[in-house]
Amino acid sequence: MKNKITLKELAKLLNVSVSTVSKALHDSAEISPKTAERVKELAKLHNYRPNPVAVNLKSSKSGTIGVIIPNISNTFFANVLLGIEARAQKSGLQVITYISNEKLEREQQIAEMLTSGFVDGVLIAISEETQRKKEYDHLFNLVDYDIPVVLYDRINLDLQVDKIGIDDEYSLEEATRMLQARGIKKIGIATSIHHLGVGKLRITGYRNALKNENDFYIANSSKPDSLREKTQKLLVEDKVEAILCTDFVSTMMVYRLAYENKIIIPKDLKVIGFLNADVARFLTPSISYVEQFPEEIGEQAVDLLVNRIENRIGGKQPINKTINTKLIHLESTDF
């Protein structure tokens, strides 16, 4: 007896994406009638069937949700999890937490386990390696098995599910324009997450605010030694007057190098970072930062998921929800 054909194999035979096959099988208006017909004919020919356990979930619930976190040592995700746990408890739900450690293979393993049908829905922030390799079949499989999915924070992916995050692009554009309005002309950006969707959006926001391309100064690397070298150049050779840091690592790198090179913050250099409020306030000088409200992201992510599980959201159109950020001024941007 032949093994059941998978969604990925159907897509390969049709020379289309897994997303296209999934949407066609779910009668998405985004897919042309001709393509939908081709997909359904081939699926019927190969006796394709979705996961039967997942189908049964439509009429029975476990009272449990799965949460995939890419990096628990990142205080942002730790605080998102706090929000998830608090709201899930109020909703009478149990939470099973998985950590992908930014690895594609681990994320794939977790997704495969979750398709077995023991959770009612899944919250996921996509791993760094998944984004870099652009391998998303395991996520499309979750959707194909009719498991409600909500993406949080790392949401720059064409997956037809509910999403919640901040406006990464606007947050850095706003910060750049604020510095410009105070007379700062030479503004740089440091990042160790330039290869991730959120990192790219933050760089775009900074770039949008620049008056011309010659004003673009960047230190970008996910490797500490390389990031250090490039950041050193921004501070010592380019002598930027202010620097925007897109993440915790780049923020700490800027502070360390400023200290080593006797650059006084905020007298010689203004700094704005993306980091936890507790860390920002206890450094000397305290760091101005973009408040992302991670606990609120976690709480509202659960609300979106519960509404999908309970079919409270009319229609099939995914919801994209944006949490407004706030620029918190501390000592590093004193004028």
Give structural notes.
Residues 5-59 form the HTH lacI-type domain. This is Transcriptional regulator, LacI family. Keywords: DNA-binding, Transcription, Transcription regulation. The structure is a single chain. The protein is of the alpha/beta class. Helix content is 45%, strand content 16%. The model is unreliable at 52-59 (pLDDT under 50).
Give the arrangement of secondary structure elements:
Layout: H1 7-14, H2 18-25, H3 33-45, H4 52-56, E1 64-69, H5 75-90, E2 94-99, H6 104-114, E3 121-124, H7 128-133, H8 137-144, E4 149-152, E5 162-166, H9 168-181, E6 187-191, H10 197-209, E7 217-220, H11 224-237, E8 242-245, H12 248-260, E9 270-273, H13 277-282, E10 288-291, H14 294-309, E11 320-323, E12 326-328
Parallel strand pairs: 1-2, 1-3, 3-4, 4-5, 5-11, 6-7, 6-8, 8-9, 9-10
Antiparallel strand pairs: 10-12
Helix pairs in contact: 1-2, 2-3, 5-14, 6-8, 9-10, 11-12
GO molecular function, one term: DNA-binding transcription factor activity
Organism: Salegentibacter salegens
InterPro entries: Cro/C1-type_HTH (IPR001387), HTH_LacI (IPR000843), LacI/GalR-like_sensor (IPR046335), Lambda_DNA-bd_dom_sf (IPR010982), Peripla_BP_I (IPR028082)
Q: Provide the β-strand percentage band.
A: 15-25%
Determine the mean pLDDT: 90
Main sheet summary? 6 strands, parallel
Shape: elongated
Instruction: Provide the structure class.
Output: alpha/beta
- Named CATH topology of the largest domain: Rossmann fold
Any idea how many domains?
3
Count helical runs: 14
SSE arrangement, N to C: HHHHEHEHEHHEEHEHEHEHEHEHEE
User: What gap, in angstroms, lies between the N and C termini?
Assistant: 75 Å
Question: Could you tell me the number of beta strands?
Answer: 12
Q: Radius of gyration, Cα only, in angstroms?
A: 23 Å
Keywords: DNA-binding, Transcription, Transcription regulation
InterPro entries: Cro/C1-type_HTH, HTH_LacI, LacI/GalR-like_sensor, Lambda_DNA-bd_dom_sf, Peripla_BP_I
GO molecular function: DNA-binding transcription factor activity; transcription cis-regulatory region binding
Protein name: Transcriptional regulator, LacI family
